[in-house]
Prior knowledge:
COMM, 9 helices, Nuclear Transport Factor 2, Chain: A, alpha+beta, COMM domain-containing protein, three-stranded antiparallel β-sheet
Amino acid sequence: MSKPLHKHMLACPVGFTRAVGLLNAAADADAAAVFEALVTEVFRFEENGGAIEQQRFRDELVGAGVAVTDTDMHSIVNALLYVCRGGEQHKIGPEGAPQLQEALQYHTELSPTAIACVARCWVATEEARVAAAPEGIAAVKKAFTIGQLVGVEWKVGVSVASSQCENLLAPFVSLVFRVAAVNGDVETQHIELTYAEFQDMNKTLVDVAALLETL
């Protein structure tokens, strides 16, 4: 049993309980596809930022027979964000879906259908994050294992000016690490990261800094 995650779900805000009935109704077979798309978008928003098209999802849910207001949509989104933040806070990763399901089953009135969908979307979002991160993170790790870091340069651009980012017009961060090898030679390591990859790298460095402060 993942105790911290259970404690997180035990501490659900008042609005979460109100949203449960709405979430269960939205997970119904007639609206299942809309519900899964909504959960996925909320989880991706928490991971990458951007915007959640609440009005569009509200209209689609209403069209599928689920009566929801604008206030209801805020409750639904906030409840899903709370679940996602619990998983992130306790770093359960893509393999942590069973822990997430267990915590939701124990401490919420979410239906099995809703819980299964939330867990499925959690896995998909986390797997996408992990898949996007290795190239950029590995390049940074390689730079640091060569020798002593003597300088860092960076710039922000869009992918039309990038040789590595595939999505046209998507923002990217270009990093240049200057590393002094043992023999004194200075080598340059250049990497380009998408916004999501840069966020993931930033989270990793923040975690490392926090750990170092405890030593």
